[in-house]
């Protein structure tokens, strides 16, 4: 390969890297990202046996939903402790970040402190970046939660970490609708969309008999 071709090839690589600038977050093995920017989290790893995980995001306003799930080997038992589900909102572009969570020495210590855990996002210089956070709480049994639907409802509320752009509008993904149109839509349309989303949400939570009664009610209208 001559010098001109080598320079051209190098330029293509640099331009390609610049065009694909994005945000990556190094994740601890025990952190489970449930939703990222209203959709499925794009997680990569260094290999099947690697504990290193990276969350890939596009540049801009970010909203991630995650849970910390540390495990402890105590005698013959493998004990898992779960944190509450955290909603985090922050701005980032062309950045490599690390999600930092506390390290507990035992399951007892985790149970005592995990509900109020102090976590952070740091950049390559070790500096914390500003984050707005909240908890995604649900009363009653936690099994079988639909986090996409829960976040759809959450993002159409006025809660501290809600992002309207990541709530589906009229069945469409927010990414297919200009942010300006989302912000300027009438209150009536927003209320109708919220009601529809909540109907879907509660229908999914209902048992078979309740769903059947609901269908009968709809058919009689």
UniProtKB/TrEMBL annotation:
Pfam name, any one: DUF2057
Keywords carried by this UniProt record: Signal
InterPro entries: UPF0319
Signal peptide extent: 1-21
Domain of life of the organism encoding this protein: Bacteria
Recorded family membership: Belongs to the UPF0319 family.
PANTHER family attached to this UniProt entry: UPF0319 PROTEIN YCCT
Protein name: UPF0319 protein VSP9026_04162
Organism: Vibrio spartinae
């Amino acid at each position: 390969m001559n010098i001109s071709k080598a320079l051209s090839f190098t330029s293509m690589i640099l331009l390609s890297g610049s065009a694909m600038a994005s945000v990556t977050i190094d994740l601890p093995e025990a952190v489970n990202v449930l939703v990222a920017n209203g959709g499925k989290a794009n997680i990569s790893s260094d290999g099947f046996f690697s504990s290193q995980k990276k969350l890939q995001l596009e540049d801009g306003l970010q909203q991630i939903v995650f849970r910390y799930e540390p495990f402890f080997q105590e005698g013959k038992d493998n004990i898992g402790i779960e944190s509450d589900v955290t909603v985090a909102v922050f701005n980032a572009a062309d950045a490599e970040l690390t999600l930092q969570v506390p390290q507990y020495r035992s399951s007892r210590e985790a149970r005592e402190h995990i509900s109020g855990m102090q976590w952070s996002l740091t950049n390559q210089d070790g500096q914390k970046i500003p984050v707005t956070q909240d908890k995604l709480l649900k009363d009653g049994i936690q099994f079988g939660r639909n986090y996409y639907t829960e976040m759809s409802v959450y993002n159409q509320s006025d809660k501290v970490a809600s992002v309207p752009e990541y709530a589906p509008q009229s069945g469409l993904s927010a990414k297919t609708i200009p942010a300006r149109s989302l912000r300027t839509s009438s209150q009536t349309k927003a209320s109708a969309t919220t009601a529809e989303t909540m109907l879907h949400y509660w229908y999914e939570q209902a048992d078979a008999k309740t769903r059947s009664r609901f269908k009968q009610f709809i058919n009689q209208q």
